[in-house]
Amino acid sequence: MRARESDMPGMGFHTIAAAWRNLWLVPGRAPRPLERLAAICLRAEAEDSRLGDLSEKYVRMHERARMGLGTGPGAMAASHLAADLHYLVATANVVLFARAIDPCLRRAENGTSAFIALDLREGIMTMLRVATGRLVLPTLLLLSSILLINSAVDVWYTWRQTEALMARLHRDKAETTATLIEQFFKGVQSQIGWTTTAGWAARPLEQRRFDYLRLMRLAPAITEVAQLAVDGKEALRVSRLRMDTVDSGADFAGDVRFIEARDRRAHFGPVYFRKADPYMSLAMAHGGMPDGVTLAEVSLKPLWDTVRAVEVGQTGYAYVVDSKGRLIAHRDDSLMSRQPDLSSLSQVAAALGSPPGVGPIEGKAVDSSLSGPSVMSVYAVVPTLGWRVFVELPLAEARASLWSALIRGLGLLGLGLAAAVLASLLASRRITLARPVRA
Known about the structure:
Layout: H1 2-22, H2 32-42, H3 49-69, H4 73-108, H5 114-193, H6 205-218, E1 222-228, E2 234-239, E3 245-246, H7 256-264, E4 266-274, E5 277-285, E6 293-299, H8 301-308, E7 317-321, E8 327-329, H9 333-338, H10 346-353, E9 364-366, E10 375-382, E11 387-394, H11 395-398, H12 400-433
Antiparallel strand pairs: 1-2, 1-6, 2-3, 4-5, 5-6, 7-8, 7-11, 9-10, 10-11
Helix pairs in contact: 2-4, 3-4, 5-12
């Protein structure tokens, strides 16, 4: 008895050491105490397949926990604990099924209670079928309607945003062209300015003629320039197109160009054509009142080439109207030479009625245009001259990409609705075929 008692501390030590070593080992099956507990609860033999399934679940759970936690001592202990708890829960589920559910099912399938089980199953299938018909399909249709409304709103918003973006892009082209026209005339005025200083008219004739020749070299757009005395008589004329004249005696006292330049310091005349080339008169008063006025004839061909070079899609175009609505620049030379009055067009009338320097940010779709079909029209103002630069694009081309995107979106939405309805019908059909047949 004394020998057995002396051996007990050694046995406890060995048991603890073995348990510590087991923490570092990867289990190949469930611990034997757990297997014996499961066998007792299930009243199963050691060869029962259910015990093997439970052991396999234990090993898989331990492997998943080890992969997530690591291989340290604490992690291995946590992995063993998680696998033990999982084993106990799985054993409880198997015991519950073996002791309660499975016997009830076997008894329900035998004897007179089989009809009760059959009615129960048929009722469940009928309920599922009715729920599919009354709940699933309306729910799908409701969701599809919401999706359709949301898609329509998105398409409308995208449509508006795209049109506004296109209008801003075209407006930038109109503003760029208007800026080039403004800079052109500012440059011509600046070049003429150094010949209109106070006291310039009192210089010798040859000096004034030399100054005019240098002016035309610096400003190639100027084809003729004339000095008008204070009484309106022409004192000197230098031209690229004809012989120079001195004291020709031509009287410009009643000419509107001379009067407005004298009173307002500058005058911009209307556009006229000489051998199919556009020209305009520009008159500027000299620095002193006794010095008279300088009258220049300016070729507008460089500006018209700029207007023709504006690209607006495939069929779009740009044109310029003066402050009265007459067409003065267009890519069609025959139309430009006739200078038709476009003030009756709605977009031109609206532009002429707006204050100078003010233009719409977004484009405006109008029915009337030079080309015939409806167009999207934007414009910009040339402040010094009061001209309007229009950029127009036919609506058929402007909205072609929008229509294609809309058709693609509606097509995809239709396919989605068809797929949803087909899936619901197949689900209903499957539930109907799954109904049990009464014996």
